[in-house]
Amino acid sequence: MTEVDEVKLITGGEFSKNDDTLDITLQGPMLSHETGQTFLLVISMACKAIIACTRQLNKIDEEFGNRDYGTTLAHGATVIEAAIQENKTPGRNPFATFMQISRIIERTVSGTQGGLYSLFFHSVANAFMNYQSDEQVTAHTWLDALVTANEAIKQFKTPSIGDQTLITVLVAVQVDLTTALINNVDPIDAFGIAVKAAENFHINHKLKHPNPQAHAVGIWMRAAYEGTKLKLIH
Question: Model-level pTM?
Answer without folding.
Answer: 0.87
